[in-house]
Amino acid sequence: MMDAIAPQAAGQPDPVLTRFRERFSAAFGPGKPHVETGDHMLDLQRPSPPEILKPAAVLIPIIQHEFGATVLLTQRTATLSAHAGQIAFPGGRVDASDAFSPLTALREAREEIGLMSDQVQLLGSMHRYATGSGYEITPVVGVVQPPLSLSANPDEVSAIFEVPLEFLMTGRNYQKLELERNGTKRQAYAIPYKTHYIWGVTAGILKTLYESLYPT
Prior knowledge:
By secondary structure, this protein is an alpha+beta fold. The protein has a single domain (15-168), classed as Nucleoside Triphosphate Pyrophosphohydrolase. The protein is built from four helices and eleven strands. Strands 1, 2, 3, 4, 5, 6, 7 and 8 form an eight-stranded mixed sheet that branches. A three-stranded antiparallel sheet has the order 9-10-11. The radius of gyration is 17 Å and the shape is globular.
């Protein structure tokens, strides 16, 4: 079930989405991708990732509503073996059949929530994100045109919801957490929104996206 989003003023271009389009100005596709390269993203004091990383990709779906843009997120089912119940982007491991990371992100979004690839305009990809659990994630940004007819795959997703893009692109909405595991302290980002608590890798990717659009 998808949360309702409070209406905003309609009829005006969303300034945050406009900034996204300007940021990812090149058309994303074979032969002309806008792909950021460089070091892996490592926010705050996360554990160092292992040397051998498993490639993965996630889609950051920006929904272009008339009342304002939102970001679509999912909540993982409580029965999954890893990261059960956490907030996530649609995505997963890269298959051998995937020619490049955006195809993985689109395929996983279709399998997890029924988002059709022809509804997604890919804008570009961010730096790869190395996780302490051993994954190298490529976040892919895409704009989605409603109306949507989504259906959560119950084996992977328990809920689908949207968060206003402007809320996620506001620095004061991010919190820093201090966690301790096996006697080691580390920090992570968190974004409380209504009844949802976005944290960990998902919050870290969003924070990095915010910082790339609004550098200090």
